[in-house]
Amino acid sequence: MDTQEALKTRRSIRAFTKEVPDRETIRECLEAATWAPSATNQQPWEFIVLTGVELKQVCDLIEERFAEDLGDIDPFGNLPDVCRERQQEIMTTLMQIAHEEGIDGNEIFERSLRFFDAPVGVYFVTYKRNDNQYAVSVAAAIENFLLAARARGLGTCWLTVTVVCREALKKYLGLPEDKELAGGVALGYPDMTSPFNTFPRTREPVDACTFWKGFT
Ligand SMILES: Cc1cc2nc3c(=O)[nH]c(=O)nc-3n(C[C@H](O)[C@H](O)[C@H](O)COP(=O)(O)O)c2cc1C
Hints:
Layout (H helix, E strand, L loop, with lengths): L2 H7 L13 H12 L11 E6 H14 L15 H20 L4 H9 L6 E8 L5 H19 L3 E5 L6 H8 L5 E10 L28
Antiparallel strand pairs: 1-2, 2-4, 3-4
Helix pairs in contact: 1-6, 2-6
Flavin mononucleotide binds next to strand 3.
């Protein structure tokens, strides 16, 4: 699969088959992640790959602690109107599909806390820092990972909800004080019979968000 195809066909996958991707394939995706740019090539990342009982225990912890430990994440607060509208659109779509599937709206949210029942969960870890240099570097690594996974027929979903109770998770995962969880990603083979994986996605036209300066 060429780069353009991987870029345009990657989508967030919210239903997975039970097949566990093999370790070497996951390793290749993580290796792709390490080729991301990072501030002065500091490569401020580590990866924790969970499956089986290890993943289940983390999911149990998230479900248990989520409500009481939202941390610094406020997904609905203080959003620019234009972003809020787009947020509303994806949330309405997911709720509508849930409704059509006879699934309770809360259930789809609870699935997200369990990495959408993917067979593998990957945590991207970085160091604590006051500015955003590590956060943006790790984000680049995560995107490389998602695209490498897509190119290998794997599905992913980047999930903020899997890092909300970050202190409890850090403790459970044995991370020291100077490190933090930057993101969690569900990984597995996509169940393309699920409407959660096939609804049309939207993007604003690139010309609506591009400002050319100095071009004639
Ligand atoms: C930082 C970040 C956090 C996200 N957190 C969640 C999440 O908690 N739950 C979820 O279902 N999707 C989550 N997503 C996936 C987005 O909803 C998705 O990327 C967006 O709707 C665009 O759709 P696409 O990935 O299919 O192109 C997250 C994506 C990013 C980049």
